[in-house]
Amino acid sequence: MNKDTLVTLLKYKRWIDSETLQSIKRIDTSSYAEKRHLMLRLMNHIHVVDVIFSANIIGRQHSYTALNTPETPSVEELEVSMAECTDWYIQHVNSMTPADLDETIKFSFVDGGEGEMTAMDMLNHMLFHGTYHRGAVGWLIGECGGTPPKDVLTVFLRDHNK
Fold it and tell me: How far apart, in whole angstroms, are the C-alpha atoms of residue 13 and residue 128?
């Protein structure tokens, strides 16, 4: 996979994260408080993992000791933090060379285990991990009478990749 493809996938991620959060905003909190809270927990989990892997890619420590935070951020907080994080990825990937993408990076998992992956594998993990959890959020949105966004690359490429 080349850098241009990675950047397109990151732009897709930024778009669909935003669309998903917009759909969550439209869920009636009084009728679906528990499911809406779970949606926010899942979106926050995506964000925490994104931040963890951004730190891993640049070889820095992160402050997380779990794969979610004790507090649940608001939709508005997630809109800002998720977009900023993905913007960082886009900027960072644009600055990477093919050798940087192939570099094997050692890191520690939050449970204390040791791991190593190439930067490209970390980027792929981050992208696919979010897709998996947004699928669960989309299902919950539907369970609450909402309309989940079309979380498909073809819609992004056709309508939003300008």
Answer: 10
3-state DSSP assignment of residue 115: strand
Q: Please state the pTM of the whole predicted model.
A: 0.95
The per-residue pLDDT for range 94-152, each reduced to its tens digit, is 999 999 999 999 999 998 899 999 999 999 999 999 999 999 999 999 999 999 999 99
Rg value, the chain, Cα:
16
Measured distance CA(55)–CA(121) in Å, rounded: 14
Alpha-carbon dihedral sign for residues 110, 119, 21, 36: negative
In angstroms, the CA 65 to CA 4 distance is: 33
CA 152 to chain centre: 15
Dist. CA 153–CA 59, nearest whole Å:
30
Helical (H) or strand (E) element with 105: strand 104-108
**Angle at CA 74, nearest 5°, toward 73 and 80?**
90
Residue of 135, 126, 106, 132 whose CA lies nearest to 6? 126
Pairing of strands 114-118, 104-108: antiparallel
Q: What are phi and psi of 148, to 5 degrees?
A: -70, 150
Quick check: 16 and 114 in contact, CB under 8 A?
no
Rounded distance between C-alpha atoms, residue 135 and residue 139, angstroms: 6
